[in-house]
Specification:
The protein is mainly α. The chain has eight helices and two strands, in the order H-H-H-H-E-E-H-H-H-H. The chain has one domain. Strands 1-2 form a two-stranded antiparallel sheet.
């Protein structure tokens, strides 16, 4: 392995970890939706990994197409940033819509409420059950595909120069290895951050706020998209 290869691989590892951790949109949507929708660990990690894979492969494909048509690195990076705006607005729109759905659901799910009758109190339910463990919530496929599309559109800016610099010099072996290392580390970091934070969140009892979990999840997803636009994360 020559000095260029070693330097690029080390840079790819460091940048992948930093880029992922500093971008809360890489893990917060999965954490909040998994908590609200009571996803299993397997499902949560599978959805996270699938979206992460789509995220990095889209950027590699864009870089490859850009080189094939002779576009410069600056032009390709500009296209990446444009895609980022689409992804951000999609997250905002989905988060707002999901939050509104969560509000309507919370208002219908009042759970167990005490009612006085003739000097005594009894408890009965109103609306649907508050928890639906093991039961498929409506909109599961929409939730997954919205996240997938958002991550495919979402830019992975640091990968572009790491991939294009060696590729433009004819070092496709180095470009491919660098892209693979960056992708693996990015997805692994997404999985680790999601699992670590979700493990803590699951231990946090929400109490009366439990029925507002979907509303809070929608708000966090929308905020993640807004952070991409306002802060460039």
């Amino acid at each position: 392995m020559d000095e260029l290869s070693a330097a690029l691989l080390l840079t790819a590892v460091g940048v992948a970890v930093t880029h992922t951790l500093l971008g809360p949109d890489h893990y917060l949507p999965f954490i909040m939706l998994a908590r609200a929708r009571h996803w299993s660990w397997a499902r949560t990690l599978l959805v996270t990994a699938a979206c992460g894979l789509g995220h990095v492969l889209a950027s590699v494909a864009l870089g490859g197409v850009g080189l094939a048509i002779g576009a410069g690195i600056g032009s390709i990076e500009a296209t990446e940033l444009g895609r980022g705006d689409w992804a951000a607005w999609l997250l905002i729109a989905f988060g707002v819509a999901y939050g509104v759905w969560g509000v309507r659901r919370a208002l219908k799910e009042r759970g167990l409420e005490p009612h006085p009758h003739g000097g005594h109190v009894h408890v009965h339910t109103h609306g649907a059950a508050t928890h639906q463990h093991g039961e498929e919530l409506p909109g599961s496929s929409v939730t997954f595909w919205t996240l997938m599309i958002a991550f495919v559109l979402g830019p992975c800016e640091p990968l572009i120069p790491l991939f294009l610099v060696p590729a433009s010099r004819g070092r496709w072996d180095v470009a491919i290895v660098t892209a693979v290392v960056f992708s693996v580390v990015t997805i692994a970091t997404m999985l680790a951050a999601t699992a670590f934070a979700l493990a803590g969140l699951k231990k946090l009892p929400l109490g009366p706020l439990e029925r507002w979990a979907h509303t809070m999840a929608g708000g966090v997803v929308a905020a993640s998209g807004l952070a991409i636009i306002t802060l460039g994360l």
